Amino acid sequence: MTAGRPLEGQVALITGASRGIGLAIARALGRMGACLSVCARNAKNLDDAARSLERDGAKVLAMPTDVARPSEIAKLVEKTERSLGPIEILVNNAGLGYFGPAHQAAESNWDSVLDTNLKSVFLLSKAVAPGMIARRSGHIINIASLAGRNAFAGGGIYCASKWGLLGLTQCMAEDLRGYGIRVSAVCPGSVATEFGPHTGKDPGKMLQAEDVAHAVEMLVTQAPRSFISEVLLRPTMKP
């Protein structure tokens, strides 16, 4: 470990890392010395992201993965640990949005959002936790949302996934803290990416993907005797 690369030699798995928040997080952790395992559903976008991260000097494993599919999660974790080593940092970032009245939504809308935003976190965390427990160290960071705390019209399914994610995060933190594993949630407001409706908002005043990545940097470099369980992230000026 060096002062400029505090994560030297550690393996970080980031989901939904082909663009936006996930790519910004991967870039930040790579610059801190982490070996990166990145996944996303779109193989072309993921390949472009991996090449960009490699140009920054990071060691990268890129694997197209649908985190809503348990079999693909198992293959991702197995290949990551075989190729790079034990997973020390898991960032559950992959997410889908559905925005519209819940009573008008199809069951498939519910399933796709909940499977991606919530069930995948359960499955991935379950897959990496035994190794972290054995080593008595690790970070699980879940990218949630202020929508996990606030209701808004048309947000029923999305909010349900994020409210559930916060509950899961808090309970996992209690289950795993005795093993030296920190489980945290980052809850950003609207971020200027392609995700979600930003009608009428000034992108220049919105949060940027790098702001969320900065919060993750803070979480993985905490002092050893404490942990930050939740970060609420808002722009300085309302967009």
Descriptors:
single chain; 239 residues; alpha/beta; Rossmann fold; 7-stranded parallel beta sheet
Describe this structure in words.
Strand 5, helix 5 and strand 6 form a beta-alpha-beta unit. A 7-stranded parallel beta sheet has the order 3-2-1-4-5-6-7, sandwiched between helices. The longest helix is centred in the middle third of the chain and has 29 residues. The protein has 239 residues and is α/β, with parallel strands linked by helices. The model has no long low-confidence stretch (mean pLDDT 95). The chain has 6 helices and 7 strands, in the order E-H-E-H-E-H-E-H-E-H-E-H-E. It starts with 10 loop residues before the first strand and ends in a 6-residue tail after the last strand. It has a single domain, classed as 3-Layer(aba) Sandwich (Rossmann fold), CATH 3.40.50.720. Helix 1 crosses helix 6 and helix 3 runs parallel beside helix 4. It is globular.
Short structural summary:
With 239 residues, the protein is an alpha/beta fold. It contains six helices and seven strands, in the order βαβαβαβαβαβαβ. The protein starts with 10 loop residues before the first strand and ends in a 6-residue tail after the last strand.
Instruction: Indicate how many domains the architecture comprises.
Output: 1
Mean pLDDT: 95
CATH architecture: 3-Layer(aba) Sandwich
Classified in CATH, the superfamily is NAD(P)-binding Rossmann-like Domain
What is the count of helical runs?
6
What spatial form do the alpha-carbon principal axes imply? Answer: globular
